[in-house]
Write a structure and sequence with these properties.
The protein has about 325 residues and is α/β, with parallel strands linked by helices. About 40% of the residues lie in helices and about 20% in strands.
Amino acid sequence: MAGGDHTLFLTPGEPAGIGPELAIKAGLENDGIPLVAIADKSLLAAVAHSLALPIKLTDWTPGTERSSGPGKLAVWDTPLETAATAGLLDPTNAAYVLKTLERGIGACLSDPDRNALVTGPVHKGVINDAGIPFTGHTELLAQRSAAGKVVMMLASKRLRVALATTHLPLRHVADTINRALVLETLEIVHRELKNRFAIAHPRIAVCGLNPHAGEGGHLGDEDQREIRPAIESALAKGILADGPWPADTLFTAKHLQKTDVVLAMYHDQGLPVLKYEGFGAAVNITLGLPFVRTSVDHGTATDIAGRGIADSGSMMHAIRTAYRMLS
């Protein structure tokens, strides 16, 4: 696989989690994609040594060539705040995690047509424990790129699920769902599937918010009052959206065989289905950014960090998906 002029920047995420191990395994399994890890080089070297992973780490700075290919990984050295120990979260390193992200975002914003960002798992709690308000990658990326509304979409081999809302407490979801939000989300999903995935006429199936999509208003009126009018407006714009469908029956073969993506109203409505179907082989994609960004579909897994057993499947899927979207 030829790299061309593209560069994928990889942030391993939480240094005490499995992210550093996944970055090294990505270098070992890479089949020619131009990849640069933004991380503490000594941390990667120490992890590689302790797990007997035969990676060759090379120094990289902006403007220099990047190594790619099996067994090699270019590293934009970004020092830790304090030494990291596998499995032991330390709020001191929250600033390090955010610095790697800031470097990756800056590189992608400087050349969004040729650079992409692939992110490893972060631990939201430890970043907040450091006194840094942090909701998640998706929200930070939207803020730093002044992108406005962005959409989280997870994709496996057989299913795509986009979200109207992301990291919100459940009690706030109903108050957040309105026709303007749903319509804007449908517009972004439609545009990005056309432009990034070459789907000429994306078919979007929309979940209702309430059980049975509101049961005609008897189980909540948001589905008829907010979601349905948004779908009608989308249809008037040429967007192939339908629904709202009861979420408990939408995720069946009958519906999914006619669908390119499901739009769920909240995080735990759609993602458990996708992760059950393809956990470890799915990718998290942020739609609506000025550059390509993908991520793994799992967390930091501090319980297995440092043991050499982390599955690199989702990381490699994220890397290859970003490369295809960029190309």
